[in-house]
User: Fold this.
Amino acid sequence: MIEGIKTSERRLIQHKPMSSVEARQPLLLGIDLEDVRDQIPNGHQYPHRLEGNVLRLLKSLKESQAKGTFFTVGTLARRHPELIRKIASQGHEIAAHGNTHTQLTKMTRAEFSEDLADNLSALGQTQSHNVVGFRAPTFSLTPKTQWAYEVLAEHGVKYSSSVLPARNPLFGWPDFGSLPRIVSPESGVLEIPMSLHAKPLPQVPLAGGVYLRVLPLGLSLWSLKRKDVDEPITTYIHPYDIDTDQERFMHPDLNDSKAMNWLMYINRDQALHRLTELMRRCSVWRYCDWVEKWRASEPSA
Ligand SMILES: [Zn+2]
Assistant:
């Protein structure tokens, strides 16, 4: 059985030493760099915790010898240029995550263009020029907002990791498919969708923020084993996902759901450990490097 062969191959790969990374499943490490206080009324009455959380994250990534992509909100970059420079100086990629973390559904095409220009300009002021990646706030790139790809191309962005290819209470693009693809040939922007759990598990992200915290690690590992060996595993984590001491308040963009807000605080002490366990089993990539490799192997390239 093909499935049986795949599983045994996977076991072999998992028992290889850490140095032998080429044959491992690629894991595209994404960190969504935003300060939730910016998105709620009077948010800055709460203490500034972002920097401490980022430093913890950086320390952990250094220990794992992992480099990732920080999808960074523009207003945050303007407020903490030295922090962004520090992240970049450690070899991580800086990419865009909207200037004010506004969902694409709340903007016109022209407004998004302006927002993205401001985002890129803010990143440029931290010496992060030639930004090539983008992630839409709360995965708000859907069939209705796919005009965004052309806007991204107009600003020099080469890839996006903004689609949740499933039904979701907030956003989703259920028939997108699980593999990276160029949606709009005119734009040439490669979309790398969120990796979901394997069926019959719920079709939610395998390694992302709230889902990484709420579902047991065993389920993520089970789903990981069932992916094709060269299918990239996409991830996202926010600095607040590892913050066990943050004050409780209603998080933005959750449709004012108290149940969803409650989940925002679950198992924060587990997030970093679980991410590290996933990274240990994969070869960790910055998005930009993986995209470059993908383009080099593209038949029409
Ligand atoms: Zn975000």
About this structure: Strands lie at 25-28, 30-33, 69-72, 93-96, 133-134, 159-160, 181-182, 190-191, 233-234, 282-285. The chain has a mean pLDDT of 89. The longest helix spans residues 109-124. The CA atoms of residues 194 and 283 lie 17 Å apart.
